[in-house]
Amino acid sequence: MQNLKIDFMGNRKIAMTFSGLVMVISIVSFFVKGLQLGIDFTGGTLVEVGYEQSADLGQIRKNLAEAGFGDATVQNFGTAKDVLIRLKLRENVSSAELSAQTLEAINKNASVPASLRRVEFVGPQVGDDLAEDGFLALLYSTFAILIYVAWRFEWKFSLGSVIATFHDVVVTLGVFSVFGLEFDLTVLAAILALIGYSLNDTIVVYDRIRENFRRLRRISTEDIMNISINETLSRTIMTSLTVFLVLVALFFLGGEIIHNFSIALLFGVVFGTYSSIFIASPMALILGISPEDLMLPGKEGSNLDNRP
User: Fold this and answer.
1) Please, where in the chain does CATH 3.30.70.3400 lie?
2) Is it true that domain 9-36+126-293 has CATH number 3.40.190.170?
3) Under CATH, to which class is 44-122 assigned?
4) Contact 225/244 with Cβ under 8 angstroms?
5) Which of 1, 2, 152, 304 would be a feasible disulfide site paired with 234, CB 3.0-4.6 Å?
6) Contact 228, 212 (CB under 8 A)
7) Contact, 177 vs 30, CB < 8 A?
8) Are 247 and 273 in contact (CB under 8 A)?
9) Which is nearest to 110 in space by CA: 55, 172, 171?
10) Predicted TM-score (pTM) of this structure
């Protein structure tokens, strides 16, 4: 793939039109449908039960769904014999009543009944605090990206990388909003990981552009960017493909509890790879980046040796 000559910059208007359309759909979905927040953000009840042998999580989910708890989250807790059940808030139902109904549902037709270990109530205020902390984490990471890239490269690259990262986050959240997927703390962790992954991809491309700006003096800015993206394309695709395969394995083999985490990163890796090629560099070009912005300053008195 070293001799590829794909005109990425020439197709930037098509790519940015597509990205703009997808972002509009995502933003409209936020306002119309919003995000289906999990118990971590909305509050609810945690019920821990124990079994004398390994628990059948599939059967537990089935029993809960039949009893009207289809939105319950079921996962092992510590060992295969311990199960943690997360239930969303229900009006006019206390935690004691909810735990009793839950225990009755999972013990229905069970040869070995489960025993109740503990019941905890997570209030809406805790959920609000988690949502606020998550937003602040996203905000602080964005400012850190701005400062780092501006210091390491140039402010136009910095703004371009933030716009590309913002694009990835908005579109990935849009997927969760459009399809009604549950947004919990694991998805928030995936979004934060996505920011780092997307930035890393963008920095690799920017670093090659900077190198070629200093090496290729008689070529237009657009052509230098095309050359740089083509030179890093094989690395970008191989890295993304490797991560993608790992996430596919996590999705199918990691259990239901991390399905949404895997989905967020699967879409995030695809959009992150796309944005590092079609969003980050074109945005820097639109902002007016040029080889002169990244030229090394000449040493003072370096021309004295050439004087007679």
Assistant:
1) 44-122
2) no
3) alpha beta
4) no
5) 1
6) yes
7) yes
8) no
9) 55
10) 0.78
- Judged by DSSP in three states, 176 sits in helix
Dihedral sign of CA atoms 165, 171, 177, 179 in order: negative
Q: How many residues does the chain have?
A: 308
Which residue matches tokens 């290729």? 216
| Enclosing H/E stretch for 125 | helix 124-152
pLDDT < 70 positions in the chain: 1-4, 123-127, 293-308
CATH 1.20.1640.10 in the chain is located at 9-36+126-293
Q: Which amino acid is at 113?
A: P
Q: Give DSSP secondary structure letters for 237-294.
A: HHHHHHHHHHHHHHHHHS-GGGHHHHHHHHHHHHHHHHHHHHTHHHHHHHTT--GGGG
The partner residues of 37 in beta bridges, in order of sequence, read 183
Q: Which two tokens stand for residue 221?
A: 């800015």
What pLDDT digit, counting tens, does each position of 242-281 carry? 999 999 999 888 877 788 999 999 999 999 999 989 998 8
One-letter amino acid for residue 128 of the chain: D
